[in-house]
């Protein structure tokens, strides 16, 4: 390389003859001529010696033609491969795309207000949810495509009602809704390739659409996937949490003061700087809130409790035998009967608990007392077939009526007669 550069300098800059250059540098004149004829510096290239895979390549191509995704061990078995797997795998990385096909991933440009990517993140940390109980709980995260603004909240379960309640909580915090909500094949949102009835109802109320990612395509919503990784490495380490509410408080503060004010290379700005543009193009919220939370309808039994996510909640016993409607959000469990609230509890995120309202217990006690009094009163009288009340007389009155004396004393003749009668 040094000789090539010096030859060209001497000849082009100083006008030294080829013969003189050869003499000064101690090289052949043909070498000088070759250096002057070449516009590029010399490069060393090792002669190709071939590979142990070359002889097997026709057989490998034949297998890939019929089964492009055949595994390397299976290919090695079928071609009787005698060497280590390393050279075979290396060759397969170049041959397989010719038969499987290439799937390039484009960089997507998002318009303001157009899209929000949604996902569930499961922090590797057990959150205290009750006495002696700890759970790994899901966190719903949503990132706007244009500004990369992120909002997130921990939710009780990954059931559809709880996910939708979390989405409404975050969207309401923004004040507007993005035109598209992008999800993967989360079972409660669109596990079968189309939005569930609850998810479609939620989107329809907001006037937006739910877009489901193609199967096995994590790059479709890579933005939120990268944010989840960022949460794992930057928010979670070194923190402790006393409850789900404590987690949400700390996480919201970190998003506001760190994640959303950090300059991002992909947008060349901070999310907070572009958020107003996103917000201006988003959809206004509807006047009526969408249906959210866990809901179902049951007929209240004698055991005046209803079950939500493994926990039992008491209901006003006066609704026994009637249908009651149950709605549970992350914070509340409300039970109604014919439009009237018959139970209002704070929702517990613990499991297998029985939660009783003392007022319901007192009402049940009063109802049992009233029932006992009615039964006692019904035993005091009887009703004839024609409807009039028949008094129930004491047995001694009938003894006196028939002149029977059951006195067991020995000096009583009547008593002996009575014994004989018995």
The counted number of beta strands is 18
Return the CATH class of the largest domain.
Answer: Alpha Beta
Given as residue ranges, the uncertain stretches (5+ residues, pLDDT < 50) are 412-422
CATH superfamily of the largest domain: Ribonuclease H-like superfamily/Ribonuclease H
* Number of structurally distinct domains: 4
- Under the CATH scheme, the architecture of the largest domain is 2-Layer Sandwich
Biggest beta sheet attributes = 5 strands, mixed
Instruction: Work out the radius of gyration.
Output: 42 Å
User: Could you state the oligomeric state of the chains shown?
Assistant: single chain
Folded structure, characterized:
- The chain has 15 helices and 18 strands.
- The longest helix has 23 residues, at 358-380.
- It has a five-stranded mixed beta sheet with strand order 5-4-1-7-8, with helices on both faces. A four-stranded antiparallel beta sheet has the order 10-13-14-15. A three-stranded mixed beta sheet has the order 11-12-16, with no helix packed on it.
- 40% of the residues lie in helices and 18% in strands.
- The protein is of the alpha+beta class and 422 residues long.
- It has four domains: 2-37; 54-100; 115-284, Ribonuclease H-like superfamily/Ribonuclease H (Nucleotidyltransferase, domain 5, 2-Layer Sandwich); 294-361, no CATH class.
